[in-house]
Specification:
Blueprint (H helix, E strand, L loop, with lengths): L2 H4 L18 E8 L2 H6 L2 H15 L3 E10 L8 H12 L3 E6 L2 H4 L4 H12 L3 E4 L9 H34 L11 E3 L10 E3 L1 H16 L3 H9 L7 H8 L7 E2 L9 E2 L8 H16 L5 H5 L6 E3 L6 E6 L4 E6 L7 E3 H13 L10 H14 L1 H29 L5 H23 L5 H16 L1 H7 L2 H11 L4 E4 L4 E4 L1 E3 H15 L24 E3 L3
Parallel strand pairs: 1-2, 1-3, 3-4, 9-13
Antiparallel strand pairs: 5-6, 7-8, 10-11, 11-12, 13-14, 15-16
Helix pairs in contact: 8-9, 8-11, 9-10, 13-18, 14-17, 15-16, 18-19
C-alpha cells in the first residue's frame, strides 16, 4: 500500500461483529426437560461427554459449565440458561457456547435464532457437538436457524398430541395436570387414569366452604378457626380454592374453553354450597351500589316467578310515579304494582312472627336447642382443641419421663418442654376466647325471640340494607311468586322461623283447650347437617 493510501487508514470502518480471532475459550451448557429425566437417565452425562470431546477436537478451553439440570426449552427465560448468557456477555474472551444439539440450546424457533444472532455480534458462536456446521457463514447460520425452527415445530406437534389427550381425559371427567390441593392420587404415573381421594387437607377445606357459606366469615377468621384443626395454608389461598369448581365435582379448563364437565372425582363440597360461597364472594368484590329505584324495589332479583324461575326486575311509570315489578322472562306480561307486592310480603312475614302469648319456657328451650345446632362448628372446634390439648399434655409427660430415665439430656428436654408449654398456653387462650359459651347462647336466644316478635315491622320500617338482610335471613334462596293466584311460595326457610311457623299452626289447631306450651317442641328441632340453619318447605 502506498504511503498516500496508508494515510486513509484512519477513516477505515470497524466491523459490526466482534472478532473471534485468537479466542479459544468456551462454556458448555447441558439440560434435560423434566426432573424425571434428570433423575432417571444418563442423558446429562452423555451430553457432557460429547461436548467435551467437541472442545478437545477443536482445541477449545472450557472455562465454565452451566445447566446440568432440568429446564424446559419452551421458553428462553430459564434460570441456568439466563445465567449462562449473562456470564458469556460479561467475559469478552469467550468464543463458543457448546451444546449437545441445537434443541438443547433453544426450542423457541425465531427467538432462539435472535439470541444466536445477538451472540454472534459479540463474537460468540453457538456450536453443536452433534450437528456440525460453520455458523460464521451465511449458509451455516441458515442451517442453524432451520434447526431452531424444526425444534419449535416439533414442540408444537408434541403439544398438539398432549392437548388432544388432555381434552379426551377431561371430557371423560378426569382431572389432568397437577393434583388439586386437598386430594391424593392413588394411581400416580404418566398416562395413567388418576384416582383421587380426599385427604386431611380436603376435609378441612370442606369445613372452610361450610363456614363461608353459613356464616360469611372473612378468610382470615376462617383460617384462624381451622388452623387449630391442622390447616397449614394462609388465608389468601382460600380465595383460589373457593373459586375452583373442581372442589364441587365440576371440571373446567382452558384446554376445553366454554365446556363444563361433571367430574369422576369425589367432591369436597356440594354444588349448592360452592355457588353460595361464590355468590357471597362476588358481592364482596363488586359491592352494592343502590339508586332510588333499588330502594323502592327491595324485592327485585330476590323474587322469582313460581312458574318459570325467572327473577323479577322493576321499573318506574313516570306519568303515575308508581313502581312496578316485572317478570324478566322475554315476552312475559306478569307485572304487578310494587305496593301490592310489598303488602303481600309484609303479610307473609307475619306467618313467622311470635306473639307475646307464645313466648314461654318451652319456646325459649326450643330456640336455645336450635341455636345450639347452629353452633356445631364451634363445638367441633372446641372438641378439636381439647384433643390437641390432651395430646400435648401426653407428649409433655413422655418428654419428662424420658428425661427422668436419662434418655435425653437437659438441653433437649428444656427445648421441647418450652415448646409444649407454649403450645398448651396458646390452646388454652383459644378455648378461653371462644365465642361458644352458655351466656352467649342465652343472649342470642333472647335476641332471636325479640326479633321474631317484630319481624314485619322491622322490614317495613327498615332501609334497603335492613330489608334485604331480613329477606335473606328468612328466605336464603329468595321467594317464589305465583302471579295468577297472587301468592308467595317459600323455597327455603331459616330453620328457626320455619319452626315458629309450625308452632303457630299447631297452636291454631289446638285451641280446643290445649295451649301452645303443651306442644311437643322436641320433635321440631332439626337434626344436624351441612345446612343446619335451613328447612326446605313449600308453604
Amino acid at each position: 500500500m502506498s504511503k498516500e493510501m496508508e494515510a486513509f487508514n484512519a477513516f477505515a470502518k470497524k466491523g459490526t461483529a466482534m472478532s473471534m480471532e485468537g479466542k479459544t475459550k468456551a462454556v458448555i451448557y447441558t439440560r434435560v426437560s423434566t426432573k424425571e429425566q434428570a433423575d432417571n437417565n444418563a442423558s446429562l452425562q452423555t451430553q457432557m461427554k460429547y461436548c467435551e470431546l467437541y472442545a478437545k477436537r477443536k482445541n477449545l478451553t472450557v472455562i465454565e459449565y452451566f445447566g446440568g439440570t432440568h429446564e424446559s426449552a419452551k421458553s428462553d427465560d430459564r434460570k441456568e440458561f439466563q445465567k449462562m448468557l449473562k456470564y458469556v456477555k460479561a467475559h469478552s474472551d469467550i468464543a463458543y457456547i457448546i451444546v449437545y444439539s441445537f434443541d438443547r440450546f433453544s426450542r423457541t424457533g425465531v427467538s432462539g435464532s435472535h439470541i444466536t444472532e445477538q451472540l454472534k455480534q459479540r463474537g460468540v458462536i453457538v456450536a453443536s457437538a452433534t450437528q456440525e456446521l460453520d455458523a460464521t457463514t451465511s449458509s451455516g447460520m441458515f442451517q442453524q436457524n432451520l434447526f431452531f425452527l424444526f425444534s419449535k415445530f416439533d414442540n408444537e406437534l408434541r403439544r398438539d398430541k398432549t392437548v388432544s389427550g388432555m381434552r379426551e381425559k377431561l371430557r371423560k371427567g378426569y382431572v389432568c395436570g397437577a393434583i388439586p390441593f386437598g386430594y391424593d392420587n392413588l394411581n400416580p404415573g404418566k398416562g395413567k387414569t388418576p384416582q383421587l381421594v380426599i385427604n386431611k387437607d380436603g376435609k378441612l377445606l370442606q369445613k372452610a366452604f361450610e363456614l363461608k357459606a353459613k356464616l360469611d366469615l372473612s378468610h382470615t377468621e376462617i383460617t384462624r378457626r381451622i388452623k387449630k384443626l391442622g390447616w397449614t395454608r394462609n388465608d389468601k389461598k382460600l380465595s383460589d380454592y373457593f373459586r375452583n369448581p373442581v372442589y364441587c365435582g365440576v371440571i373446567v379448563s382452558s384446554v376445553i374453553p366454554g365446556e363444563v364437565i361433571e367430574g369422576k372425582h369425589p367432591a369436597i363440597t356440594t354444588k349448592e354450597i360452592f355457588l353460595e360461597v361464590n355468590g357471597l364472594l362476588s358481592k364482596k368484590n363488586h359491592g352494592d351500589r343502590y339508586g332510588k329505584k333499588d330502594h323502592m324495589l327491595p324485592l327485585k332479583q330476590f323474587m322469582i316467578a313460581d312458574t318459570c324461575g325467572t327473577s323479577y326486575t322493576g321499573y318506574l311509570v313516570k306519568k303515575k310515579n308508581l313502581y312496578y315489578y316485572k317478570n324478566n322472562r322475554k315476552g312475559s306480561k306478569e307485572n304487578r304494582r310494587a305496593e301490592l307486592m310489598h303488602n303481600l310480603f309484609y303479610e307473609k312475614l307475619k306467618e313467622y312472627e311470635l306473639s307475646q302469648e307464645a313466648i314461654g319456657e318451652p319456646m325459649q328451650k326450643l330456640v336455645f336447642a336450635v341455636l345450639t345446632k347452629l353452633q356445631e362448628d364451634s363445638i367441633e372446634l372446641m372438641i378439636g382443641l381439647e384433643q390437641q390439648l390432651n395430646d400435648l399434655k401426653n407428649n409433655l409427660g413422655k418428654i419428662e419421663k424420658r428425661f427422668a430415665l436419662g434418655e435425653i439430656d437437659r438441653e433437649l428436654y428444656v427445648k421441647y418442654r418450652d415448646e409444649f408449654d407454649k403450645a398448651v398456653e396458646d390452646i388454652k387462650d383459644e378455648i378461653g376466647n371462644s365465642h361458644f359459651n352458655l351466656s352467649n347462647l342465652e343472649m342470642a336466644t333472647e335476641n332471636a325471640v325479640n326479633r321474631a316478635l317484630n319481624l314485619s315491622e322491622m322490614w317495613a320500617s327498615g332501609n334497603l340494607e335492613e330489608k334485604r338482610r331480613i329477606q335473606k335471613l328468612l328466605f336464603p334462596e329468595g321467594i317464589a311468586y305465583n302471579h295468577k293466584n297472587h301468592v308467595y311460595r317459600t323455597i327455603r326457610v331459616n330453620v328457626l322461623f320455619a319452626t315458629i311457623a309450625v308452632i303457630l299452626r299447631d297452636s291454631e289447631q289446638n285451641k280446643n283447650g290445649k295451649n301452645s306450651n303443651q306442644l311437643n317442641f322436641s320433635r321440631l328441632v332439626p337434626k344436624a347437617g351441612i345446612e343446619p340453619a335451613l328447612f326446605r318447605t313449600r308453604v
